[in-house]
Design brief:
By secondary structure, the protein is α+β, with helices and mostly antiparallel strands. Helices cover 42% and strands 18% of the residues. It contains 32 helices and 31 strands. A six-stranded mixed sheet has the order 1-2-3-4-10-9. Strand 16 and strand 17 form a beta hairpin. It starts with 7 loop residues before the first strand and ends in a 24-residue tail after the last helix. The relative contact order is 0.04.
Length: 971
């Protein structure tokens, strides 16, 4: 994307009832201060995104009634722009052709908003701010970001000179910093406060006489400087910043500063958001005269302040000449300065009046208009009553009144909302959830501040819940505007039960007890059944019976009665009345409603399987069909867990892991997914740690491990799994595959002693595969201090063997040094043999046999035969007749049962008078069958098998505990 872009409209996204967004590209004319080509007469869409570029950087502007309220934050190399609309603008051009310095552009849904996620390339930078009614974002490629202001903020002398200039009825204080700093200037009672965002001493030698003001005292904090100036309350205060100098004027006429705009934010916990360009830091101070704690928010020049006093329960915003000042009686107020936005919030949100209180009073409502409920998320039975005039007539009247009110709101942002609220109540009460959502969304699009109106959030949440949009409903009911509302608690309990979060469901239902009886009978029945299921799943069977009786007492449709019967069947099952439970399950399973019939059929399978009337194979076949019948909630999780347990019990490991992992990826946000993930981990652990996979062929086990290697646990258990699988591969001489597994562990997962241990095993496997150079690299790359003595000896012997295989015999002997361990002596003997040091090699081979010759009843092993043959040949070639005679005398009784009887007889008989005529080449054919390398390989396989438990019987994995029946999804 080099060079300027031409001005081009590249997309428009429309949303329900007029919410739309556009994005356009325009060239930036200037290199420092960009100018955007715009049509002044063109009306902006609610979300208008303008993009311009020059050779230095790219600017993205967010304008329009919604776009101008966008919030920008940065997290490392990621810049997130939060746009207050669920209708995402079309940014496909930015995704396909990202600006220079941008790695990728994505959009994602958030709470009543859309977030534009911009990932910066390495070395790139970004700047943000607001100007001309838009929020802007400058993107700089690597090396193109503007340089920081030169020079330190604190002058060379270490103190900031303060100069006081007196005039009639006023005094000017000039603070000459070395570089631009942020400031806040405001009055508290009879004192003026000046706060800077940099710590420095104040040189007040030229400000000893402040005229109309009193004395000045200053204090330095870790990252700020505060000056308190006594001044009568009648004196005005102003501030002006020019370059690195701030001038504070006390007294005399003052010009009002540029105003800081403060709006409420109800997208999450209720907060106040101030738009203040150049905000730098929040500084908490304690007034030495009063003793209370307050905060100042500093900002860079030019001057901007807040002209009013605004009080809420949680805080007070003071008038300022520069920056912001906040008093609070709480100790948990959070004030964050991010870019050009300052966010004031508390855990759980601020306590603010509903936005409707700022609207004009509505005309008296008609008698037939649906009235307001006493709780914001409550539905009243009479709302859906069409009366004698019928549904169509009543709907048209309410719709016409709402339309006239919406037209008036286009010209008057303080127009009332009662007619539109009445229409929304009627739609929700009539079960028209989609239409109700559309009306509320249109109100939010026209007046974003209404997102803090409790009743609107409650009505939209109820409408979303009634049509199955459970995640969206959860977001609405999580709004700070509904905090503490009992009707909201009821909805949250029902939603938690739908997710299978039984503990949270019980807590929420308990919090909504004051409102549940005010809902219509159909919802009382649903809430009662859901609460009964939550009580049942948390072990409170008595409460479950009472709640079921409450649900049955309501005049609910047949589908809702079946839901309650399903809970009753589960109650029977837990009480041990399995025959009654089975009869109810079978009756419900015949219903033409999949959301209810599926958990009922699961209950039938579970009971019949326990009774033995259904075989595991037949049950698995039924569950395979059942898992496709209803998807996306706790019911599917229960089906998958049961199916996975059956497959494991049948030894069908791949099918079990496939089923469990597939559901875990799709349903990971459900509470029951934790138990499913536990089942999956336990199954994988049973296969590769407890030995269940030992019954598989090594190649099958390897394929299964590779396909599900992402399940390998972190830590010692995961490393042990890999080592055991590697041992099985070594057993069948799949050395390359075993080495690959071990090398991944060494390179990516281990450190210290554990890394040295696995690297030692890796080197052993590589030497078995006749790869001495990689074996040396594995040993050398894993060197560390304080290794166990036995491990050090093993690594030393392996290093010497690798050097020997490379022909570096002297270096190998130096590595062994004075080591006389069995492993070292074995390698030393092989080195002597390769060096044709026949006497030394023969003596070592014989010494390794020890007193083996005394046990003549047991035949020699192949490794022992090789050592006897090499010892005899070595003594013969060394012309050591005495040693050969001793060896022959000791091992002659083994000739008859030897595997290589002819070779053993020749080696023990010696040259037989052929002195001077025989040499090493004459024994080549004889010693070829006595290769000590094969014996060493077999020895290493045996040791590896013992270390990893390969000499035990295969284990059978335990079947995961069958999960409880899930509550049916909302119908």
């Amino acid at each position: 994307m080099a060079g300027p872009r031409s001005s081009t409209a590249i997309g428009r996204t429309t949303a329900a009832l007029g919410v739309a967004g556009t994005i356009a590209l325009a060239p930036i004319a200037g290199a420092v201060v960009p100018a955007f080509a715009q049509e002044a007469a063109a009306a902006l869409d609610p979300i208008t995104i303008r993009v311009g570029a020059n050779d230095g950087f790219t600017r993205i502007e967010f304008a329009g009634i919604v776009g101008s309220r966008s919030r920008v934050r940065r997290d490392g190399q990621t810049v997130v722009v939060r746009i207050g609309s669920t209708a995402a603008p079309d940014v496909s051009r930015l995704k396909v052709d990202p600006p220079p310095g941008v790695a990728k552009v994505e959009t994602r849904a958030a709470l009543d908003a859309t977030e534009l996620v911009i990932t910066l390339a390495e070395g790139s930078d970004a700047r943000t701010g607001s100007a001309d009614g838009a929020v802007w974002l400058n993107l700089y490629p690597a090396g193109a970001a503007p340089a920081a202001p030169a020079g330190a903020a604190v002058p060379a002398g270490g103190a900031v000179p303060v100069i006081a200039t007196k005039a009639a009825e006023q005094v000017n204080l000039s603070f000459a910093w070395g570089a631009p700093v942020g400031a806040a200037v405001f009055r508290r009672g009879d004192a003026v406060w000046v706060v800077f965002d940099t710590a420095a001493r104040m040189d007040m030698s030229k400000a000893s006489d402040l005229g109309v003001a009193g004395d000045a005292r200053w204090a330095v904090g870790p990252d700020y400087t505060a000056i308190r100036i006594s001044a009568p309350e009648a004196l005005s205060v102003s501030a002006k910043g020019e370059g690195a100098t701030w001038t504070v004027t006390i007294g005399g006429p003052t010009a009002p500063p540029a105003s800081v705009v403060i709006d409420r934010d109800d997208t999450g916990d209720t907060a106040l958001v101030a738009s203040m360009a150049g905000a730098t830091r929040t500084v908490w101070l304690t007034d030495p005269m009063v003793g209370d704690r307050f905060a100042a928010v500093t900002a860079l020049a030019p001057g901007k302040g807040f002209a009013d006093t605004r009080r809420t329960i949680d805080l007070t915003l003071l008038p300022t000449a520069q920056g912001m000042a906040i008093e609070t009686p709480t100790d948990d107020l959070s004030i964050k300065a991010e870019g050009d936005l300052v966010t004031l919030s508390r855990p759980g949100g601020l306590l603010l009046s509903p936005p409707s209180m700022a609207l004009e009073a509505a005309e008296p409502a008609h008698a037939e208009a649906p009235g307001k409920a006493k709780f914001p998320a409550l539905i009243l039975s009479e709302w859906g009553d069409a009366g004698e005039e019928g549904f169509s007539t009543r709907y048209r009247k309410l719709q016409d009144a709402a339309a006239l009110e919406a037209i008036a709101a286009s010209d008057n942002p303080r127009a009332p909302i009662e007619a539109r609220l009445a229409l929304t109540r009627f739609l929700v009460g009539s079960g028209l959830g989609f239409e109700a959502i559309g009306v509320v969304n249109a109100m939010f699009a026209k007046t974003p501040s209404l997102q803090g109106e409790p009743e609107l959030r409650g009505l939209r949440g109820a409408a979303r819940a009634s049509i199955g949009r459970l995640e969206e409903a959860t977001l609405d009911f999580s709004s700070g505007a509904l905090a503490g509302d009992p009707s909201t608690k009821v909805w949250q309990g029902w939603l938690a039960a739908e997710r299978g979060d039984w503990g949270e469901a019980r807590r929420a239902f308990a919090g909504g007890a004051a409102a549940i009886d005010d809902f219509p009978p159909i919802w009382r029945a649903r809430f009662g059944a859901a609460h009964a299921m939550a009580a049942l799943e948390t072990g409170d069977l008595d409460a479950s019976k009472s709640l079921l009786a409450y649900s049955f007492s309501q005049e609910a449709p047949a589908a809702d009665q079946l839901v309650a019967r399903l809970v009753q069947a589960r109650l029977f099952e837990l009480e041990g009345a399995t025959d009654r439970a089975l009869a109810v399950y079978k009756a419900i399973g015949r219903a033409p409603l999949d959301g209810i019939a599926t958990p009922a059929k699961l209950g039938v399978i579970r009971i019949e399987l326990a009774k033995g009337t259904l075989t595991p194979t037949a049950a698995a076949a039924q569950l395979e069909q059942l898992k496709w019948r209803w998807r996306g909630d706790a019911t599917e999780l229960s089906v998958i867990r049961t199916l996975g347990g059956l497959y494991l019990s049948q030894g069908r490991y791949r099918e079990a892991l496939d089923a469990l992992r597939g559901a875990g990826k799709r349903l990971g946000d459900l509470p029951g997914a934790v138990e499913l993930q536990t089942d999956l981990s336990n199954a994988f652990r049973a296969l590769f740690l407890d030995g269940a996979a030992d019954g598989l062929q090594p190649v099958q086990a390897l394929a299964l491990f590779y396909d599900f290697r992402d399940l390998t646990p972190v830590g010692a258990d995961g490393d042990e799994m890999v080592r055991r699988l590697a041992r099985r591969l070594v057993d069948v001489d799949l050395l390359d595959q075993a080495a690959e597994l071990l090398k991944y562990q060494v390179d990516n997962r281990l450190e210290g002693v554990a890394k040295a241990q696995v690297a030692t095993t890796l080197a052993t496997v590589l030497l078995m595969d006749r790869q001495p150079e990689p074996a040396l690299q594995a040993i050398w790359a894993s060197r560390t201090t304080l290794l166990p003595t036995a491990l050090n000896a093993e690594r030393r012997a392996l290093e010497a063997r690798a050097l020997m295989d490379l022909g570096r015999y002297d270096h190998a002997l130096e590595t062994l040094a004075d080591d006389r361990s069995a492993e070292a002596q074995q390698v030393r003997a092989d080195i002597f043999w390769k060096q044709e040091n026949w006497a030394g090699a023969a003596a070592l081979y014989e010494s390794r046999l020890g007193d083996r010759y005394k046990d003549t009843a047991t035949a020699l092993t192949p490794a022992e035969e090789s050592q006897v043959i090499r010892a005899g040949v070595g003594y013969s070639l060394a012309r050591d007749a005495g040693a050969l005679s001793r060896l022959s005398r000791n091992y002659a009784p083994f000739k008859g049962r030897a595997r290589s009887a002819a070779a053993l007889r020749i080696a023990l008989d010696g040259l037989d008078g052929m002195e001077g005529a025989a040499n090493a080449q004459d024994f080549a054919g004889l010693t070829a069958g006595a290769d000590t390398f094969t014996g060493w390989v077999n020895q290493m396989k045996t040791q590896l098998r013992e270390k990893t438990g390969g000499n035990r019987a295969a284990a059978t994995p335990a079947r995961p505990t069958a999960p409880a029946a899930a509550a049916p999804a909302a119908g």
